[in-house]
Amino acid sequence: MRIGQGFDVHAFGPGTHVVLGGVSIPHTQGLLAHSDGDVVIHALCDAILGALALGDIGRHFPPSDERWRNVSSRHFLLHCAGLMIENGYQLANADLTVICETPRIGPHAEAMRTNLCADLGCGRQEVNIKATTTEKLGFTGRGEGIAAQAVVLLQRRGKSAAVIPENPELRTLMAELDLDPLK
Ligand SMILES: Nc1ccn([C@@H]2O[C@H](COP(=O)(O)O)[C@@H](O)[C@H]2O)c(=O)n1
Ligand SMILES: C[C@@]1(CO)OP(=O)(O)OP(=O)(O)OC[C@H]1O
């Protein structure tokens, strides 16, 4: 078993929506970032990479690289899911916390969960999404940005229990990276 944790913050800036867990949520502001600024997925990627002892998201997707400008963070998550499988692990569970005053996360949590489970190739029971305000304290309390935390537990995947991801994007990415899901 391997445990990993991730944390990310993005500041609010001009915009009409934020992208969290791959869900576009209408909002009075957007999030400033090189990519789509999906703090939830960034924290989750860092947790997975941490569990695998493979560094962090910036090492795999440098902010200096123009290829990642405005890209969907689901691309990063698919990559991390592929690395997890390549290294012989599957997700035992992931627990995420989104920290902001607004927008309200509750109404979007199930759609976010659907996206994350699809990209990770796991069942709904393996992923939980929570939200909290900071009672108007600190930078999230002042409405300056959104923070997210993630904790994951990875378990060794036996050959007999091997899971070939249902998500066609993940299968394609794994094929491109020459990752064998049964290895
Ligand atoms: N951005 C948010 C923040 C909170 N929630 C939900 O409200 C509950 C109460 O939050 P407190 O910060 O007052 O404890 C929390 O448990 C979430 O269910 C939310 O949906 N979006
Ligand atoms: C996601 C990456 C991609 O270039 O950039 P940002 O979208 O700015 O996000 P951040 O969490 O600040 O940094 C990690 C980078 O890998």
Automatic annotation (TrEMBL):
It catalyses: 4-CDP-2-C-methyl-D-erythritol 2-phosphate = 2-C-methyl-D-erythritol 2,4-cyclic diphosphate + CMP. The keyword Metal-binding applies. 4-CDP-2-C-methyl-D-erythritol 2-phosphate binds at residues 8-10, 34-35, 56-58, 132-135, 139, 142. Its EC number is 4.6.1.12. A divalent metal cation binds at residues 8, 10, 42. Its cofactor is a divalent metal cation. Binds 1 divalent metal cation per subunit. SUPFAM superfamilies: IpsF-like. Pfam families: YgbB. It is an enzyme of class 4 (lyase). It comes from the Bacteria. Pathway: Isoprenoid biosynthesis; isopentenyl diphosphate biosynthesis via DXP pathway; isopentenyl diphosphate from 1-deoxy-D-xylulose 5-phosphate: step 4/6. NCBIfam families: ispF. Homotrimer. This is 2-C-methyl-D-erythritol 2,4-cyclodiphosphate synthase. It comes from Dokdonella immobilis. The gene is ispF.
